[in-house]
Amino acid sequence: xxxxxxxxxxxxxxxxxxxxxxxxxxxxxxxxxxxxxxxxxxxxxxxxxxxxxxxxxxxxxxxxxxxxxxxxxxxxxxxxxxxxxxxxx
Length: 89
Known about the structure:
single chain, 89 residues, alpha+beta, Beta Polymerase, domain 2, 4-stranded mixed sheet, 4 strands, 33% helix, globular
């Protein structure tokens, strides 16, 4: 994201196929980061809403269901100014 924005150095964007999978992804990210001493500054959303955001300051993790991911289209929003480092489909 930098130098184009000061929001974060990286956005991680992923899709969960169900509320349960979104919750599992959030739990995994939270535990993995906690294991290396990183706690989120903020967590927004719920699995039931189809979107969760985990703010680790320089890394912001977005976990969407497919419908919300298409609606917000963060890749499209940032495609002209941010470099994609890795895309797994």
